[in-house]
Amino acid sequence: MEILDGKDYLEEIKELIYEYSNSLNRDFSFQSLEEGFKKKNIQVQKGDALLC
Q1: Burial of 13 (0-12, 13-18, 19+ CB in 10 A)
Q2: Helix/strand/coil percent split, the chain, to 5
Q3: Residues 24, 32, 42, CA angle at the centre, nearest 5°?
Q4: Among 11, 18, 23, 25, whose CB has the most other CB atoms within 10 angstroms?
Q5: CA–CA separation, 48 vs 45, rounded Å?
Q6: Is residue 24 part of a domain?
Q7: Is the residue at 19 inside a domain?
Q8: Which residue has the higher pLDDT, 42 or 14?
Q9: 22 domain-assigned
Q10: What's the CA angle centered on 12, arms 7 and 15, to 5 degrees?
Q11: Which pLDDT tens digit goes with each residue over 1-33?
Q12: Domain range spanning residue 30?
């Protein structure tokens, strides 16, 4: 396993989150995923985004 800086893979992380949430067959509209993933909101401010 390799741990990578997730800031370089934000689009891939977005796709993985959508894929996972869709596979659960649950209503995640309360999470406002689409709003959170608008390009202006995709950023890492505090802490790190790690991808394994």
Answers
A1: middle
A2: 55, 10, 40
A3: 105
A4: 18
A5: 8
A6: yes
A7: yes
A8: 14
A9: yes
A10: 130
A11: 888 777 788 788 888 888 998 899 888 788 777
A12: 4-42
C-alpha radius of gyration, the chain, whole number: 12
User: How far, in whole angstroms, is CA 47 from its chain's centroid?
Assistant: 15
Q: Which residue's structure tokens are 């869709």?
A: 22
Query: Would residue 9 count as lying in a domain?
Result: yes
What pLDDT is attached to residue 44?
Answer: 55
Q: Which residues pair with 4 in a beta bridge?
A: 51
What gap in Å lies between CA 44 and CA 37, rounded to an integer?
Answer: 12
Which residue is associated with the tokens 């959170």?
36
CA–CA separation, 28 vs 48, rounded Å? 24
What does the chain come to in residues?
52
